[in-house]
Amino acid sequence: MASSLGPYIYCTSVGHRVHFASLSSRPTTAATTAAPRSLATKTRVAIVAAAHRLRLPPPKVMEVEPSLAPSAEPAVAAAFDFKGYMLEKAVAVNSALDAAVPLAHPKRIHEAMRYSLLAGGKRVRPVLCLAACDVAGGRESQAMPAAVAVEMIHTMSLIHDDLPCMDDDDLRRGRPSCHRAFDEATAVLAGDALLALAFGHLSDLTCYPADGSVSPDQIVRAVGELARCVGAEGLVAGQVADLEATGLGTPVNQEQLEFIHLHKTAVLLEASVVIGAIVGGASDDQIERLRKYARCIGLLFQVVDDILDVTKSSEELGKTAGKDLASDKTTYPKLLGLEKSREFAEELLKESRSQLSGFDAIKIAPLVHLADYIAYRQK
Amino acid sequence: MASSLGPYIYCTSVGHRVHFASLSSRPTTAATTAAPRSLATKTRVAIVAAAHRLRLPPPKVMEVEPSLAPSAEPAVAAAFDFKGYMLEKAVAVNSALDAAVPLAHPKRIHEAMRYSLLAGGKRVRPVLCLAACDVAGGRESQAMPAAVAVEMIHTMSLIHDDLPCMDDDDLRRGRPSCHRAFDEATAVLAGDALLALAFGHLSDLTCYPADGSVSPDQIVRAVGELARCVGAEGLVAGQVADLEATGLGTPVNQEQLEFIHLHKTAVLLEASVVIGAIVGGASDDQIERLRKYARCIGLLFQVVDDILDVTKSSEELGKTAGKDLASDKTTYPKLLGLEKSREFAEELLKESRSQLSGFDAIKIAPLVHLADYIAYRQK
Hints:
Two copies of one chain form a homodimer.
Chain A: E1 8-12, E2 19-24, H1 29-32, H2 45-53, E3 62-63, H3 82-100, H4 107-117, H5 124-135, H6 140-161, E4 171-172, E5 175-176, H7 178-181, H8 184-202, H9 216-230, H10 235-248, H11 254-279, H12 284-311, H13 314-317, H14 323-326, H15 332-336, H16 338-354, H17 365-376
Parallel strand pairs in A: 1-3
Antiparallel strand pairs in A: 1-2, 4-5
Helix pairs in contact in A: 3-6, 4-8, 5-6, 5-11, 6-8, 6-11, 9-11, 10-11, 11-12, 12-16, 12-17, 16-17
Keywords (chains A, B): Isoprene biosynthesis, Magnesium, Metal-binding, Transferase
GO molecular function (chains A, B): geranylgeranyl diphosphate synthase activity; metal ion binding
Cofactor (chains A, B): Mg(2+)
């Protein structure tokens, strides 16, 4: 399993701002000579993630002076119609999802899969996938099988996370959750089937353009990336850590919270972007920059989710609100306070943008606006 | 999704003997001129499976005269040390499984995955995979990632099937089932993680020989085959149909029972053999013959399982015995009686052998003996 992060990672931080500065397998001179004492707050996001990926004990945090220069924000055409773009892509994705799960025999399981998969939602992950493919120079048709696959994975994780033995949630996307609308057994199996179907769809050569613009090598790489993001190094790790933390009865610290969120949320956004980039023909360097962009917006997504949970109603969210507050679950607002959480979100947003510098300014517009959307969404 | 069976399938039957005779997309003259009226019993296994695969309504069963000639039984060296072969392969598979799931963080989920995955078992599926690769002319190292993957899928299906909301089984492989040894949430997640890891392992190029003897094309095809066998066309379809049938309170007919078994059991044996053949470099024709062999032994496996459930004790089986009898679950012994069930098993065994004729007589020894083992096992 390749990792983008080496065992030595230098991060600079202002408040909770993350700078993925120098990622190498050995300390660099610049980094080791830096004096970190003046830094008040440290962010261990990248370090913890890297250590986990490499199955190493948490490495020592080595810091360098923070960059005082404002992060390079790419010039994006202000005229970009983000709403129209999202709508257009969501329609295309919904159509592909609908076609990918026809109402076959046995009917009940296909109904359950379709119930959860076609329940709406903003299709953030598939759109990220399509947008990353575009940034890499690929066409939409190259990334659509992957876009469908990541949404299937997202849906299956929601179905299983909502189960009574897990988060026990009755409401999802404004409707009864899958095990409420059907039954527990069907929900478990619908999740399993969607998980398998995601890989089936991603590896189905008939779903790709006939011109061979996506090679079997790229598909194999995409399958590996998707598998890693679901398993015990990804979504499952996040859910396990979350359940363990909830059961502890004591608040977790920021490092543990970041582990949960990086795995429970960020990995799938990361996989969506990276797989889109792979099938779009991105270079390794481009893939790694897009991976870091995605990791930032992944963490951002969860920080914002935590904020919304305490600031919005169930009706506004379309799911049970205030649940984190009622439970003993640690969230960013509980850990940092609401204001600091918002600052952290802002810093992550800026960092995500800086990773996009160097790409085509026009083509990155959807990714820039998607990050903004994740940051400023109201549900 | 490619299917080995066209919409027109001609089967001949004597008693419950299945003959996969002519598999084509159009009726052949020989078939359409045949007079089926003299046949007392019909077997719809292939027809139902094909219709389901192609998402068609059940096709008309068109029959041809039964073959009166005995099936060609390949000459197998009587000296073949099957016990030694199984032991040697199981040791290699166990070692690969152990290495594939190291005890990483978060510990509990990896413990649960290892608990179920390394609980012993006969490793029939991985051995089938390795043996099919050998028959196709490949080396063991080419098939080991696939062998590991199919055992992961098998284990995940057992973990989820044992859940309280499914078959609610406390005992598995002679030990508490996963949700009993750990908890329900961990069992759901361990299953999910193993499912994802199976695809991760199968698509991990570093797991294959460095000489490129397994190409990305072969891996993509293998991933597709594995995905199909798990999802709503495979294991999940079988489990759903099984749960529905159990809930009916009325016995299902033989057609429904065959649907359940072909999907709940046969598909994974089929995938094991087919994927082994793919990575071993088999031709399409060879793959399809091995697929039919596997489908026969898959159904055989379940018929024998049903027989063992009523003839053996829990201690002898290492799992709860007599469960099918106590429940309203339809089984072959209930449907056909014990004697007819045994005859059916015998016919399936013979048919499986006939599919192996034409392959290297020495190399098929493990597959011939594996079929015998499945037929004559005592637990």
